[in-house]
Amino acid sequence: MNAGQKREHAPSQDFPGIVLSSRVNSVRMLLPAACCLSTLFFALMCPLATADWPMYRNNAGRTGYTAATLPNQLALRWSVKSEHRPQPAWPRSDRMLFDRAFQPVVAGGRLFYGDSVDGSVTARDLKSGKLLWKFHAEGPIRFAPAVWQDRLFVASDDGRLYALTTETGRLLWKQQGGPDQRSILGNERLISKWPARGGPVVVEDTVLFAAGIWPTDGIYLYALDARNGDVLWKNDQSGSIYMPQPHGGASAESGIAAQGYLAATADRVFVPTGRAVPATFDRRDGQLAFFHLQKYGHNGGASIMAAGDQFFNGGLSFDAASGFSVSKLGDGQLAITPNGLVRNVGDSVIGYKWVDAEKADRKGTVVKTKALKSEWSVKGRADATALVVAEDQVVTGGAGYVQVVDANEQRIAWTADVAGTAYGLVISDGRLLVSTDLGTIYCFDASGDPVADIHDDRKTAALVNSAYQQLAEEIIRRSGITRGFCLDLGCGNGQLTMALAQQTELQIIAVDDDIAAVAQTRNQLAAAGLLGTRVTVHHRELAATGYPKYFANLLVSGRSVIESETVLPEEAMGRLLRPYGGISCVGPRDALQVVTRGELAGAGSWTHQYANPANTLNSEDELVQSGLTMLWFRDVDFEIPQRHGRAPAPLTHRGRLFHEGLDGLVAVDAYNGRELWRYDVPNVLRAYDGDELMGVAGTGSNFCLDDESVYVRHEQRCLRLSADEGTLQREFPTPPRKNGGPGTWGYIAVEAGVLFGSVAQPDHVVTYRYRNTSGDMSKLLTESESFFAVDSETGDLIWRYDAQHSIRHNSIAIGDGLVFLIDRPVALHDREKKPKTKEHPVGRLVCLDAATGVVKWRNDDDVFGTVLAFSTRHDALLMSYQPTRFRLDSEIGGRIRVYRASTGEPMWEAEADYASRPMINNRTIYAQGGAWDLLSGKPQPFQFSRSYGCGILAGSQDLLLFRSATLGYFDLKSNDKIANFGGMRPGCWVNALPAGGIVLVPDASAGCRCSYLNKAWVALDSQP
Predict the structure, then answer these.
(1) In the prediction, which pLDDT does 10 show?
(2) Are residues 477 and 398 in the same domain?
(3) pLDDT tens figures, 651-684
(4) Which 3 state secondary structure label does DSSP give 152?
(5) Among the listed residues 452, 459, 417, the one whose alpha carbon sits nearest the alpha carbon of residue 438
């Protein structure tokens, strides 16, 4: 732009009514107080003329303003680049950007910043960049420290707040956020179950921080005496609150979370809740003031700014007294000044000033208020990711640049290029610090000193004794495990850990009860550049590590190599080692004890859309119980169909979780969330990427599992993939249509070495159930003209059944060597959105021999149903409807009937008012609306009632899972009321699986704008 560019007024950028208003007859009394609030706040909470920048964005309000100024011309003085880039917790999120860079603060001529990879806090000399000291926590540090006098407060994912001396980094005290030291796998790291992700803020002599990001597991907000860490107050009651959720009409027992930088004013504490709007607390006693989650259900984010009687979040300004929005600002970076605010929009930097204004309230009364009036606008480099203000200088940073805008002259005064995207800006003592997402921190000043490119973070190779190198080789040879999570339980001197880190791709958790050994191991790994990137080191009692069960693919012990008397806790080894192939290798090389863990007794599987080919919707898992709690969570870069497309359910078997996306499949370790493999199938679920709310509710799934393979049908073929490696094993063509034309594969299932399929009927295309958007209904085929069986090894066609009329995919059930289907005319009115008639002729119920296709029996008597489910245990075949939300018109509901499966003889029938697809759990049928004895039809007690949720029920032996505002579950043993695991949004059909001894919930919220607190793949455990 031109250096002398003139002021640009933009009336459309004005924001009227942005502060508390006062009625006309009270103007003289109330307006002066309102006008002074901003100035008073800056006087008390934001030191104006100081060389320090002691907290993130300088002050407790996170305003990004300082009265200090920068020299007119700046030059690079020094830069330091970390050996590793920052590791953001949520790299796909545009609402949680708090850890995209190492965020620095400055006090007393020193620069301090935390590291999200190795968990270190670094202190440097501000003038030269020279390294002064380092301190290591036990988990990633994702937030800037906060300085108070000679203290540095640091929050870590290990769940603690640390108080260090600014002079040497010596630990003064620490406060654990959660109730104990239990750990989980979070964002691919072993962290506290209650990570301290409420970034610390200091007000007067009080430091505040928060721990916990999953409401149901507990959220802990603390006010501590900055001098000694004494607890002034604690709020641990705001997680499991029954309250309205982001989706309209939905409520659940799910309250706040803490994820982002806390902000504070004289009487308020604002807690960012991740993706949603902030929760607000009374600063004096920690009581929750308000949390308007549903009212602002599409807004929010982890960034908060507060000044006077306002706070700002997610493009909105809010009244701090009530929490109600008073104005919409829109997207863009923002800083608050004593007289107004400055924001970035596109390539423009705009300054606003508070002015007097009037408006009519809802009753028509004229109200005096304050408004923001645009004063100036300067065009510069676009799309800022950071913005701060130094008196009349505005500093913005973005992708590859940093620039200074002179607000008085309305021009770009200075600019410089940087490597990466600038997310951190600090102004202190005439210097500008810029931190980028590549792990580089730049210091610009006007001192004229020589430029220093600092490389004190360079690493040296770890020296490992040859005996440990040889032992590591033997462990690799005997176990075959080179990827996944390794637990060195009793790591001792850390030599085995380092040898395995050098020779494998393992993520290693090294733990010991000897604090000196832990310190030595940590220092060696840090020097080698392995700490955080490959190895995490903990000090724990070996019999009480607090680690999550089943997470370790490989378990070793460095101490067992040289300590012949070492006895590792047998219970811990059994609890921590992964079922289905986890291996422990303990002892010296010449006496190495190798044990492989087998199947998990009592664990169930979910191998087909409705659990199994029999459609019971029940995994029969005996281990999953009520009292769900987090086991692991992570972000997965995997594009899935939007939630209203009702895509196929995830599947799980033998410790693996399989999930489909728009263009392929991904497999992850069910017990630790590690990605195992991906396989590309272009456009495999593109037809499900719509808003029609039909999807698999009509088509059935397009993939299934057996012990060794994954089968995926796509258009005219079916792929067989290795479940272990995700490699293609075979490809099966669809048999031709009855008319000899090419066939499209419809239904799919596998049982006892036989792959079952159907030749879809392309002429019967049903209408959308909700909205007609991007989904391709012509490919969402719900009926077939033929059914067939092929050998899953050779692909040879075994037999084929050609229907007299048509076979609805939902009316096929398989088990115990039998195939059941309903041969029935199609419901023509399902093709119309507003049909004139809704007649659906009855059909024929057919039982086939699964091995030969021979008809074993048929029943033509009033076969009304659209859904079949089969209990092999009780020789019972259930016929029903699928009368769910957004259903086909033919799914009229109201009746159920059970047949003797071996003969086709009706056992009982009942009129029943149910509103979900029925489930068979041993001898009971469950559906939303009732429960019945499978063999007699007698109604059973079932105290089930849920909030809003358009999915269906999925069950295990003792638990039902479903969507009820958030994740809901129902304990069948207590038969009392539903419970929630909050902070997430399940999908719109089957998304949560109770199988493998745990509950698996991959993300299925694509396309949803609702501000649920987290968006993640999760696995839940049952509370002991």
Answers:
(1) 35
(2) no
(3) 999 999 999 999 999 999 999 999 999 999 999 9
(4) strand
(5) 417
